[in-house]
Amino acid sequence: MSTAVPSGDVPVRVLLVDDHAVMRAGFRMILEADPGIVVVGEAATGSDAVRSAAEVHPDVICMDVQMPDMDGIEATRRLTADPSVSASVVIVTTFDRDDYLFQALAAGASGFLLKNAGPEELVAAVRVAAAGDALLAPAVTRRVIERFAGQGADPAPAADAPGSVASGSVAPAASAATASAPEPVPVDLTEREAEVLRLLAQALSNAEIAQRLFIGEATVKTHVSNVLQKLGARDRVAAVVYAHRHGLA
After folding, report:
1. Is the pTM of the predicted complex or chain greater than 0.70?
2. What is the predicted pLDDT for the residue at 167?
3. Is residue 6 in a domain?
4. Which residues are within 8 A (CB) of 223 and not within 5 positions of it... i.e. 6 or more apart?
């Protein structure tokens, strides 16, 4: 799920979701220091997030994982499945855990950020998500590729695993993601689009792809947009997973 790049003086609208008021206050202070970002709402639970998103229409939702009532993974799943919600979801968590990472992406999140990231990284994450891109560092992308290409272990936590999401709603999503049959490789990708897809699968940025192919970055953005549309992919992460599932990388 992605949003259009905000233009002119239109700020990026952000919904903050975290069960700690102090954390939300800190995120608000950091984000609203940027004149191009405005926090339009806050929520303390996943259920509140789902309701608030329908009311305030954010461009980006910064979502915690461990919360009472409904965890952030389930909230993300519901939000990304709702056609009336156009917001991208960035998971912001204290825990650098593979199960959270994989399950968040399977639920539809467009990014994954740790709470110990610097203020500039949080701002950048919001802007990247608002532009419809995925926020994954190359090292994280490799972990995603290994998991979704069937090379890694099942990331679903055991029921009694320390720190497991309390609602128990996370594991089924991960299982569904791995059990689903791969889609057929589209035959209408142009040679250049297929080349761009292979480079996306190497976790290259638009600028790096442009340099590799000796074309303009604006042209790369057009090719990426076409690839995502033809694949029916939500974002770059989904395209990377698709490429590795089908031997295009």
Report:
1. no
2. 30
3. no
4. 192, 193, 196
